Automatic annotation (TrEMBL):
<feature type="transmembrane region" description="Helical">
    <location>
        <begin position="6"/>
        <end position="32"/>
    </location>
</feature>
<dbReference type="InterPro" id="IPR003317">
    <property type="entry name" value="Cyt-d_oxidase_su2"/>
</dbReference>
<comment type="similarity">
    <text>Belongs to the cytochrome ubiquinol oxidase subunit 2 family.</text>
</comment>
<feature type="transmembrane region" description="Helical">
    <location>
        <begin position="299"/>
        <end position="326"/>
    </location>
</feature>
<feature type="transmembrane region" description="Helical">
    <location>
        <begin position="225"/>
        <end position="246"/>
    </location>
</feature>
<keyword id="KW-0349">Heme</keyword>
<protein>
    <submittedName>
        <fullName>Cytochrome d ubiquinol oxidase subunit II</fullName>
    </submittedName>
</protein>
<feature type="transmembrane region" description="Helical">
    <location>
        <begin position="159"/>
        <end position="180"/>
    </location>
</feature>
<keyword id="KW-0408">Iron</keyword>
<dbReference type="Pfam" id="PF02322">
    <property type="entry name" value="Cyt_bd_oxida_II"/>
</dbReference>
<keyword id="KW-0812">Transmembrane</keyword>
<keyword id="KW-0249">Electron transport</keyword>
<feature type="transmembrane region" description="Helical">
    <location>
        <begin position="119"/>
        <end position="139"/>
    </location>
</feature>
<feature type="transmembrane region" description="Helical">
    <location>
        <begin position="77"/>
        <end position="98"/>
    </location>
</feature>
<keyword id="KW-0479">Metal-binding</keyword>
<keyword id="KW-0472">Membrane</keyword>
<feature type="transmembrane region" description="Helical">
    <location>
        <begin position="253"/>
        <end position="279"/>
    </location>
</feature>
Length: 342
């Protein structure tokens, strides 16, 4: 296999990891107004991701670094054309990270409420805008002959991009609430179970619309992996329905695992619909960025491949070990026994 094609799928792998892991972080953050009925409940919700949220975000850093090294043309066009939504995402992530660290620094209800609101905003904005960004990557954007984006912010706010954005927002929300149900006890646990069942219905509807529209887009440009787009879309929908069913039956672990697989297959569906492009042009097909014309030199890709062969197993092992260490539930008793600033 050509190394450029291999690295297309390695980048897919890193974005799958990012959306699965930081996806439930976003969902937990967005659930605060619904599950955090008092300070103890809010601390219980936040502490479910307290030890891992920053580790989850490293997947985005690695994905961006790999994108820069393996597909510099794609990276340059993407970050110059999408600079405003990507900047907003960055600011929202900073806002969320600061809130996690500073929320407990003062024993003031107003202080904590302000940072809680920033956690919600810092979770919802990236959840929406990542979907909008990837929707536009799959659909294509106007590019000139030098692969420069010729549109503006409103070009990106098109129906398909917004639909994918709403889908990721709802999908991450359900995924995060399922994680809270898995990791907590008491009233928060019961409220999370109820919320999963309510939120899963609009998520399923939005996801179904995204799957159908993505298949139509892929078929319209005769995507060579159309079969994979259809298969992944169908499997993602099945696992999202399973999330709802398992939650109704009280199987929290299986519900969360179904959310993982739903996001995994949804992201693979988007990349399969994109293949063999990395950024299609809506002005002229000759202006499109493909795996072939956007990749680095074979020597660069060869060095990166050997590095990834050594580093990726270590990263995965460390991630698995971290989640094993923090595998226990965050109980209400432990929160009540801890200092109020913890």
């Amino acid at each position: 296999m050509d190394l450029a094609y291999l690295w297309f799928w390695i980048i897919t792998f890193f974005f799958v990891g990012y959306f699965v892991l930081d996806g439930f972080d976003f969902g937990v953050g967005m659930s605060l107004p619904f599950l955090g009925k008092n300070d103890v409940s809010r601390r219980q919700v936040i502490n479910t991701i307290g030890p891992v949220w920053d580790l989850n975000e490293t997947w985005l850093i690695v994905a961006g670094a790999c994108l820069f090294a393996s597909f510099p043309e794609w990276y340059a066009t993407l970050f110059s054309g999408f600079y405003l939504p990507l900047l907003i995402i960055l600011l929202a992530l900073i806002l969320r990270g600061v809130s996690f660290e500073y929320r407990h620094q003062r024993d003031s209800a107003k202080w904590k409420r302000g940072f809680d609101n920033m956690i919600v905003i810092g979770s919802a904005v990236p959840a929406l805008l990542w979907g909008v960004a990837f929707g536009n990557i799959v659909q294509g954007v106007p590019l000139d002959e030098n692969h420069i984006f010729t549109g503006n912010l409103f070009t990106l706010l098109n129906p398909y991009g917004l639909l994918v954005g709403v889908t990721t927002l709802l999908l991450f929300f359900v995924h995060g609430v399922a994680f809270v149900a898995l990791k907590t006890d008491g009233q928060v646990h019961e409220d999370a179970r109820t919320l999963v069942r309510k939120a899963a219905i609009p998520a399923i509807i939005a996801a179904a619309g995204t799957v159908v529209w993505t298949i139509v887009l892929a078929a319209g440009r005769e995507a060579p992996l159309l079969w994979l787009v259809i298969a992944c879309g169908a499997v993602a929908a099945v696992f999202l329905i399973n999330l709802f069913v398992f939650s109704v039956r009280g199987l929290d672990g299986w519900a969360f695992f179904s959310g993982i697989l739903a996001i995994l297959f949804a992201v693979v569906m988007l990349f399969a619909a994109l293949f063999p492009y990395v950024l299609p042009s809506t002005t002229a097909d000759a202006n499109s960025l493909t795996i072939a014309n956007a990749s680095s030199t074979p020597y660069t890709l060869q060095i990166m491949s050997w590095t990834a062969l050594v580093a990726m197993p270590l990263v995965l092992a460390y991630q698995a070990w971290t989640y094993w260490v923090f595998r226990k539930r965050v109980t209400r008793t432990s929160i009540e026994a801890a200092p109020a600033h913890a």
